Amino acid sequence: MQLKNKTALITGGSTGIGFGIAKRFAQEGARVIITGRHQDKLKAACENIEGDVRYFVADVCDREKVRACVAWVLEACSAIDILVNNAGVNIVDRSLQRLTPDGWDYVMRINADGVFNCIHAVLPHMRERKDGVIITISSIAGLRAGVLGGAAYNASKHAAAALTKTVGLEEKDNGIRCTVIYPGEVDTPILDDRPEPVSDAHRARILKPDDVAAAALFVAALPPHVNVPELVIKPTTQEYA
After folding, report:
1. Domain containing 156 — which CATH number?
2. How many structural domains comprise the chain?
3. Does the annotation mark 240 as catalytic?
4. Which of 55, 106, 153, 240 is catalytic?
5. pTM, 2 dp
């Protein structure tokens, strides 16, 4: 039980990578709270995870709702040991030729502003405790801009990564450890928003949510004097150099 007596707040926890992390953390003894915009999906996720798993309906774009979520978790669990910024989206019309201002705003609000909102709400508590782990699920697109992710996604994931690393720099003496995980392609529902359909054969050879969850657990379970600032995880067949 690597996370026994720890409380983890995971955004976008009802599906995909967030669900995988919630399941793995609960298996390791953590009290897990997942958030998302849809109560039915959150409830179904909790019913499919063994352990102490609860949910709070919150859109990471809504700062008041995020603050209410953090307050609720602290009231129910007394502490937030781990924050996982996982909520993320992409859009079909992602090339600059098709990207609209509304599409840009939608992606940036969730993928970048949402990370800020959650970190900003949790930081005062972690500072007071002189302890805490913040994990942001970025993307290899947050390291190297490419055509596949599109302009808004690339920019948002770079922003989320830079923010998380800056928090790590500023808060290290307060015992707060920050990690950016950069996954390559992962078989999650976000693939449904690709401009071109993804084949079953391609899905079979890319990462699964459990793979990223294992990386998140490795980071979260490290002792307080150890920090991994960045971690890249990719399918064997995906190019990276």
Report:
1. 3.40.50.720
2. 1
3. no
4. 153
5. 0.97
